[in-house]
Design a protein that fits this description.
180 residues; globular; single chain; 7 helices
């Protein structure tokens, strides 16, 4: 709906204006979050959403972007390895919620989770490159393996993790990143 249009319009407009696509995407997330809140509840609770959802997400993503960009611009690291370095920092800033307990993760739990996610992501990217997979096949394999790993981390539910990963991917594709 409108929220998806706001996200995509913001992102595309900023990229067209010359902003880095990663930063344009972050701006789109911000616009989407704000517009969704305004459409759902008006101004009621907007401050809380900005403080509890948008600010931590943007802070973590900007830290990830900054570290990754610095490492690659200086020529120190391959972009995939820069992402591995930046992932625990992002999760330390915005540790998220433990799906098993529903409780907020501690900073150390967030960093550990970020290390696991980053290592899995880099390993999958290297495997995709080594196997010379077609991009679509690589994306499908990466989604399946990432879902399986997430399922293991969330209590050993491998197939549930794979199903959830594909469900999320399909939902994002059909809704252009917004809710269905």
């Amino acid at each position: 709906g409108f929220q998806s249009l706001a996200v995509q319009g913001t992102t595309l407009g900023l990229v067209k204006a010359g902003l880095d696509p990663a930063l344009a995407s972050l701006a789109g997330i911000g616009v989407g979050t704000i517009s969704g809140q305004l459409l759902t509840n008006g101004l009621t609770g907007l401050g809380n959403v900005l403080k509890t959802q948008l600010a931590p997400t943007l802070a973590g993503e900007l830290a990830f972007y900054g570290i990754s960009r610095l490492a690659t611009e200086v020529g120190v690291l391959d972009p995939r390895l820069a992402g591995l370095l930046a992932s625990p920092v992002r999760m330390g800033i915005n540790p998220g919620v433990d799906p098993k307990t529903g409780q907020a993760r501690t900073v150390m739990e967030g960093i550990q989770h970020g290390l696991l996610q980053g290592a899995a992501s880099v390993g999958l990217q290297f495997a995709q490159q080594a196997l010379d997979l077609d991009p679509l096949a690589g994306a499908l394999a990466t989604t399946a393996l990432t879902g399986a790993i997430q399922g293991v981390l969330n209590g050993g539910k491998v197939f549930e993790g794979v199903g959830n990963a594909f469900h999320s991917s399909i939902q994002e594709a059909l809704s252009l990143g917004g809710p269905l």
